[in-house]
Amino acid sequence: MSNEQLVNQISTALDKHRIASFATVEGNQPKARYMAIFHDRLIVYLATNRKTHKVEEIKDNPNAYLLLGYEGKLPNDVIEMQGTVVISKDDSLREKLWTDDFKEWFNGPSDPDYVVLQFTPAKIEYTALGKERQVWERGD
To answer: Any idea which fold 3-137 has?
Structure first.
């Protein structure tokens, strides 16, 4: 399978998932929580509040991990992503990702506490049910 075919398969699999386990590093320990995700090909976006622990954890250590997959039913793809996270400064991205579901926590896309985390993978392990695990790694 070519690299482009694998990227397309992973991107299509990401379309099926809205929730991921997102792990950051707190001190020297992993800390995971479930979060809603959005993606553009292999770049994953997560919306959060600027005042959360995860934002501080990312400022201290940008390394993170995403796990997507089993959501209570089979068959399903499993995607494991290792990479780094930055707090996006792109206001148009905040507008693009805004959903009315966020109204419970934010006053709108211009709310200063509403931030978008941009996860850029360095390595992705992708397993479709009944298939061999495929590994994608970012080239330099």
So the answer is: Pnp Oxidase; Chain A (2.30.110)
